[in-house]
Amino acid sequence: MAVHAMKGANVLRVFAFSDGYGTQQNILTPVPFQPRLGEYNEEALKRLDFVLAAAAAKGIRLVLTLTNYWPFYGGQRFYVDSVKGTGAPQELFYTDPEIRKYFKDYITKLATRTNTVTGQRYVDDPTILAWQLGNEPRTSNGYDSSNGFAPGALMTAWTREMSAHIKSLDGNHMVSTGHEGFTTNGDCCNGHTWLNNGLTGTDWVASNLEDPNVDFATLHVYPASWGFTPNDYTWLGENYIRSRGEQARRAGKPIVLEEYGMEEGWLSSRNTLFDFELSEARESGFDGSLVWAVLHREGYLSGVTTNFIFDYNGDGARAVLDEYQRGKSINA
Asked: Phi and psi at residue 19, in whole multiples of 5°?
């Protein structure tokens, strides 16, 4: 935490969950917050208390992410497997009443917790900038249309239910979705129609801009992972970053470029891509940015998108540090 603060970071996004013990293929979590569904490990939760206390001591605020579409640290798959058995559709996380109740119970557990280090209730802790419903919540491709749902309807209903639940517990903090930015009817698409046709089950406008309990919109940008090439990724500037920024402005909602990142080697330097994306976001009136992902020290987080992760001496750090300094000048 001290290194991030010294470098100029003022907000970090933290995965405030760990479900089950993980696997060798993802991440082993020997001391999870939730070893079994509905059972909470107090000694593990004290580690989150410590993280909040450490952030407060360094003037850093945190976005607390509550679950994950992807399997590392358990996330949605853990809930579905625990209730419905291995192999059941992960989309049951959004629709099954028992699973939704377990997830609400976890939200309640954290929101009503008292920090064992500071003695402060989470709901009263200004170190928490926002609660986040999940990391990149979505469905498998085409799930909505294959199962009789209008594109985005399932996810929008879940988002509204969970954001309202958080606000019923905590009126002091903001709520965000963790969505990537995919819509159900946007401008098309340079061969990438899936960004705007609801394929992934997300209606970014309905869930981020129209939900009264969601306080700011999120956007993630990964050109290489989305099928763009080093020759055409700049299409995303006008047609994705700026487009979403304009939509957020019209709706009167702040918007954050919440994940931008690049796997090592896709371009000759991450800085090239980061400079472009951050410039597009600034010029579009974005209210902040978070990189995926920079470590406070040399070394890699084993098992999770390691080729996207670097330290402050690595390729990509220059663009990130420049952005930290711009934030300081804005806040001064």
From this structure: -115, 125
CA distance 117 to 94: 34
Which residue in the block uniquely carries the two structure tokens 């402005």? 249
The tokens for 85 are: 């058995």
- At which residue do the structure tokens 């394929």 appear? 199
Tens-place pLDDT, residues 239-256? 999 999 999 999 999 999
Task: Please spell the DSSP secondary structure of 181-197, one letter per residue.
Answer: ---SS-S--TT-GGGTS
CA 125 – CA 202 distance, rounded (Å): 31
Q: Which residues contact 108 (CB under 8 A, 6 or more apart)?
A: 165, 169
* pLDDT exceeds cutoff 70 at 302: no
**For 129, phi and psi rounded to 5 degrees?**
-80, -40
Model pLDDT for residues 143-170, shown as the tens digit of each residue: 999 999 999 999 999 999 999 999 999 9
Amino acid at 224: A
**Catalytic (active-site) positions:** 136, 259
Distance in Å from the first CA to the final CA of the chain: 21
